[in-house]
Amino acid sequence: MSDPIALVVVDAQRAFRLWEAAGKRRNNPDALDRIADLLALFRRTGQPIFHIRHENRSPGSSFHPDAEGYVVEEAAHEQGDEPVIVKGVNSSFIGTDLEARLRAAGIRRVAICGATTNHCVETTTRMAGNLGFDAVLVEDACWCFDLDGPDGRRHSAEDVQAMTLANLSGEFADIATAETMRVQLGSAD
């Protein structure tokens, strides 16, 4: 593969594990394993990696820098000089230098994974597409939670994930799996 593709790992932080422990139900329990697989793949093939952290300075926020939830999951931890970009809103592009870093490195393709599929991952993916990047959302390396709609109806995390992927597919991003990425990057080990 001649054109570089960057891996963007969005908000793989402990807050979500804490939410789950407190009773929130999520889909895709193997997502962190797939993120670890992607990190290993991108490192092995020499592709760039960007780690995104969500920060919320409101007292009591799960993502406050002093909160346990702010800490990145061990499976998704950065290594060496892999950049960590801190954001304060849903999009990894707003208020950060992610776009400038990608453009300076000549990167036109991004593979996006992390949490949650229907919030920060979706917003980052939409913006990547709108900014002219060729975006790939790695569906089995993302997860979300059950969600109550404005009518009070509960939507399962599986349905939320499926609808998010349907909304993004084609117009904003290609949808792939970690295995698809492994094949595309030519790493058949």
Flag low-confidence runs. none
Kindly identify the CATH topology.
Rossmann fold
Structural class, judged by helices and strands? alpha/beta
Got a strand count? 8
Would you identify the CATH H-level superfamily?
A: Isochorismatase-like
CATH class category label: Alpha Beta
Put simply, the count of helices is 6
Q: What's the gyration radius in Å? A: 16 Å
- Give the strand line-up of the largest sheet: 3-2-1-4-5-8
Mean pLDDT: 96
H/E element sequence:
EHHEEHEHEEEHEH
Total separate domains: 1
**So, CATH architecture?**
3-Layer(aba) Sandwich
DSSP helix fraction: 25-40%
Proportion of residues in extended strands: 15-25%
SSE diagram, text form:
Elements: E1 5-10, H1 15-21, H2 31-44, E2 49-54, E3 84-87, H3 98-104, E4 109-115, H4 117-130, E5 134-143, E6 147-148, E7 154-155, H5 157-168, E8 174-176, H6 178-184
Parallel strand pairs: 1-2, 1-4, 2-3, 4-5, 5-8
Antiparallel strand pairs: 6-7
Helix pairs in contact: 4-5
Description of the molecule:
The chain is built from six helices and eight strands, in the order βααββαβαβββαβα. It is of the alpha/beta class. It has one domain: Rossmann fold (3-Layer(aba) Sandwich). Strand 6 and strand 7 form a beta hairpin. Helix 4 runs parallel beside helix 5. It is globular, with a radius of gyration of 16 Å. The two termini are 16 Å apart. The model has no long low-confidence stretch (mean pLDDT 96).
